[in-house]
Amino acid sequence: xxxxxxxxxxxxxxxxxxxxxxxxxxxxxxxxxxxxxxxxxxxxxxxxxxxxxxxxxxxxxxxxxxxxxxxxxxxxxxxxxxxxxxxxxxxxxxxxxxxxxxxxxxxxxxxxxxxxxxxxxxxxxxxxxxxxxxxxxxxxxxxxxxxxxxxxxxxxxxxxxxxxxxxxxxxxxxxxxxxxxxxxxxxxxxxxxxxxxxxxxxxxxxxxxxxxxxxxxxxxxxxxxxxxxxxxxxxxxxxxxxxxxxxxxxxxxxxxxxxxxxxxxxxxxxxxxxxxxxxxxxxxxxxxxxxxxxxxxxxxxxx
Length: 303
Description:
The structure is a single chain. Helix 4 (184-197) crosses helix 5. A hairpin with a 3-residue loop joins strand 11 and strand 12. The strands form four sheets. Strands 5-6-1-2-10-13 form a six-stranded mixed β-sheet, with helices on one face. The protein has a three-stranded antiparallel β-sheet with strand order 4-3-7, with no helix packed on it. 21% of the residues are buried. It is an alpha+beta fold. The protein has helices spanning 8-11, 33-40, 133-136, 184-197, 204-237, 241-249, 293-302; strands at residues 51-62, 65-76, 84-87, 96-99, 105-109, 116-121, 142-144, 159-166, 169-176, 251-255, 279-281, 285-286, 289-290. The chain contains seven helices and 13 strands.
């Protein structure tokens, strides 16, 4: 495999993007020439370093168009930034940790220069027809399982699923958890809105059913968070001393693409500047740097 300014779509795998939506990444002529320059040119920031790259998508509604914004992460690290992925979803009772090969993923060395690796996935889309709908979702819910000593803290999912039964009908809804404790009045409003959305009669008895479902879901949610935290500590502890050291020294840069404005003004052009962020995922946290081509241009002008 070889990286060119135009081959990023073939070389980089965009982890966590469903195969049904994967083609939407390429509906615009995204330009990753800045990434190419810094990976392969002598003046690039990664010259002389061992680097690993993988992609992700950040779907956003922009002017009523759903745009799958591609992002690429480049990790400077002496060993791979992750060898396992974790399957996460609101519906799942537990999160599953799997080695990359279980989902036909692997780190491949690129021919362009020594010490340049890219995450690939060899899963053939036609073969997905033989899988159940649940199994197909594994690629969509996959996140890099990146655990480091400095990020051992509770990083709970921001929602969990609640189920309840009224008039022999089972309903479910997602309950979102914020940083601040929800007041009793707010809980009653949530219960009322939940019943209205399900087109169920709003009365005291049904309100109590919803509140009980939230209470049970909260207890299970907290227990799951504690279990996940303990699993992270155990996972990191079981890594070798050298690998733990490599991961602690890792430096991650996040790249967004550029996009040339169309000549025809009426043609849709997604402005992505306001959506740029340093987030990697809830296990890694934030990257060390977002590459900003505009800042580079400004520095050059000053010189």
